[in-house]
From TrEMBL:
InterPro entries: Ataxin-10/CTR86_families. It comes from Verticillium longisporum (Verticillium dahliae var. longisporum). The lineage of its organism: Eukaryota, Fungi, Dikarya, Ascomycota, Pezizomycotina. PANTHER family: ATAXIN-10 (PTHR13255:SF0). Signal peptide: none annotated. One of its GO terms (cellular component) is cytosol. This is Telomere length regulation protein conserved domain-containing protein.
């Protein structure tokens, strides 16, 4: 039995200094691209209700059950993490088959209201935002972009969308934005020679990952603000407050480039 502490150590080793490595990120050294795509297809066939079977005789939705089993098992969560990291490490764009397959998996998880659980399961204690979480944000943003041209007609679907937006908004407002602003404040102290660079709590590698994750979140806010039924909620939640806070932090912590 692997205890939680050992599991955390494994995460740190897998996503520590240097390039990200793991199960799927090493597979290109063994399998060719078509075989890697087949792996994603196998996972998709297990999670998606492609045949449209609907409910069983006992009233059970097998697609939702499979999604729950996938995320309930440690091996399923590890596989999901590696599938997401694979997209980042091998720089898969939105037109690639692997990106499209993974986006369908995320959509299926959203239909089962499991994206928030997946987000929490992808967390790495030492990271502000883990690489897998950043890719998940990118996939969620891709999912919401389709809502701009074809918004859901079912009120239940809209409610589910709003709950997911509320989850990410609350998570970033309460945890991620304050941490990023705190780092910007420390950067400002360094610029003013009021602090020792050796006391800065994170290295460049961790800063880059935090920046990438924050950028994906801001992209998500941009997309959500273009959807009528979610734009009203952003106004009600005063989302502009977070943007102004980040801009003030950048103003103090990052030197401006000259206009000329």
């Amino acid at each position: 039995m692997i205890d939680e502490e050992d599991d955390i150590d494994d995460d740190d080793d897998s996503y520590g200094e240097g390039p990200l490595t793991g199960l799927l990120t090493e597979i290109p050294n063994i399998l060719d691209p078509k075989q890697i795509e087949a792996l994603h297809m196998i996972v998709k066939s297990c999670i998606l209700d492609s045949a449209g079977t609907g409910l069983t005789r006992t009233g059970e939705n097998l697609q939702k059950t499979r999604c729950r089993m996938f995320l309930a098992l440690d091996c399923g969560k590890s596989l999901l993490r590696e599938m997401l990291v694979f997209i980042a490490v091998w720089e898969k764009d939105e037109q690639s088959l692997i990106f499209q397959l993974t986006s369908q998996l995320v959509e299926a998880m959203h239909h089962s209201s499991l994206v928030s659980y997946a987000w929490n399961s992808l967390r790495i204690p030492k990271d502000i935002i883990s690489p897998a979480q950043t890719v998940l944000l990118r996939l969620v943003n891709h999912m919401f972009r389709s809502r701009i041209s074809s918004p859901p007609q079912d009120p239940k679907d809209r409610t589910r969308d709003l709950k997911l937006v509320m989850f990410f908004f609350g998570f970033f407002r309460s945890r991620i934005v304050p941490e990023c602003v705190a780092l910007m404040h420390l950067q400002a102290q360094l610029r003013e020679d009021n602090s020792d660079p050796g006391e800065f709590p994170v290295d460049t590698w961790d800063m880059e990952r935090a920046k990438d994750g924050l950028a994906q979140y801001l992209d998500l806010l941009t997309t959500v603000s273009e959807i009528a039924y979610s734009r009203a909620m952003l106004i009600e939640w005063e989302a502009v407050y977070d943007l102004i806070t980040l801009l003030n932090g950048l103003e103090a912590g990052v030197p401006k480039k000259p206009l000329v």
